[in-house]
Amino acid sequence: MKNSLFCVAFIMSLSGFSRTLPISLLKENSKPASTSDLRLATDYLQQFYKLEVTMTNRTKRSTDLLSEKIKEMQHFFHLNITGTLDTETVEVMKTPRCGVPDVHNYSPNGEQPKWYKNVLTYSISQYTYDMPSAVVDSVIDSALKVWSTASPLSFVRTYSSNADIIVQFASYAHGDSFPFDGPKGTLAHAFGPGNGIGGDTHFDDDELWTTGMEGFNLYLVAAHEFGHALGLSHSRNPSSLMYPTYKKRNTGGNLLSGEDIAQIQTLYGPRSGLQYFYPKYNMRRLFFPWRLQSIIPLNMQDKCDLNLSFDAVTDIGQDILLVKNRYLWIRHEQGPEIKEGRITDFIPEINSDIDAAYTSGGFIYLFKHSRYWTVKKSHIKGRPKSIYMLGFPYSVKKIDAAVNIKSTGNTLFFVNKMYWSYNETAKSMEMFYPRYITDDFPGINTAIDAAFEKNGFLYFFIGSAVHKYNYNIKSIVETKNANSWLGC
């Protein structure tokens, strides 16, 4: 096999080696290193610094060999180079990290391994149970895009076992001769570009994988491992994404340091212009296909334009969908990236703009003029229906905004300065409606563009502003730019 395996782990017993070391030579302030620290050091240096076990019956040679490897590791991590197992060195060795060695592998031709094509396929063969598969799909897609934004590479999802990069969550021995070690040790490993197992990326499923600050952030670890899958080695720079140990950091913005960008562009060159790829989604596999791909049309309004307003907004589980004209944005509550694109790219059967939207009972209801669609799994359920079937008078020609109130189950429809309350259980309008918006929502004195509910608060979008409304005290408690929901 020609591929260079970045994740080289020399799994062998070092018990005889550590027993022959004179502990007095491995001290900190005359305190002997413990047997457990010696075992930790030998295992660590063997896996990550190519410590070779030879001549175990010759005490001095074995000690010198270990001491030199400790110095090599201390140099890599910018520690005091003592050659002994001081506290700082042991702490670094105990830090959760990537399973790829810190020393480069030998390449017969002296070239750094790389892919000799710019379009790579990837698949996910086994998921973690720590988060929904759709969230994993989104995070993996986002982690790959970290590298495609800085290079001409692009990544296409496939369900084939012959994908260039196969992602797998597994525990302990999992078929590649490099078993994982349980919680909080080696987090993941990846193989460099090449045939067979080349490019494959494995995550230790004994870790707690999350999209936040608890446990281990899958986005951060995956973006790091995909760097290896593309041919990058570990960096000594603590600000580099390719630094070997795990550290919590803000996942907003660009994860790549200047060094990371230089390294990936050394292999593949700079990104040349924007290319737009509109995938054909397999709707039978995914409930939320918009988690897969960020599709940015050329004439789509900048999401951070201070004048941006929205036509419709609704929650989808923990995510927020925002619509403007024929385009939409999806903010993932459990993920690092905003997805954006044409409505028709996500819901192919709708080729128009949207007036209002709300979610109830697992369905999304989208309104346009006097008709509405019921959407499930990105497909239209049945034919468009008339809003008059809901109980609206014929004087109502369109819905401005809609929001389902979780505590009551009722849906509020806003039309000009009035609003209706629709009983989703009885499938009829409540009595004594419509009412004036300002009577029941003091401070909201004009027509509403969009609305949704989250964590017990109502959010009213009016022009380029969004008002956070506390219904219990009937008051606006905060006002921000509408696109603050897009991270702007």
Automatic annotation (TrEMBL):
A motif (Cysteine switch) lies at residues 96-103. Zn(2+) 2 binds at C98, H224, H228, H234, M242. GO terms for biological process: collagen catabolic process; extracellular matrix organization; proteolysis. Ca(2+) 2 binds at D164, G198, D200. Pfam families: Hemopexin (PF00045), Peptidase_M10 (PF00413), PG_binding_1 (PF01471). The keyword Secreted applies. Keywords: Calcium, Disulfide bond, Extracellular matrix, Hydrolase, Metal-binding, Metalloprotease, Protease, Repeat, Secreted, Signal, Zinc, Zymogen. The active site is at E225. GO terms for molecular function: metalloendopeptidase activity; zinc ion binding. This is Matrix metalloproteinase-20-like. It comes from Erpetoichthys calabaricus (Rope fish). The lineage of its organism: Eukaryota, Metazoa, Chordata, Craniata, Vertebrata. The gene is LOC114650504.
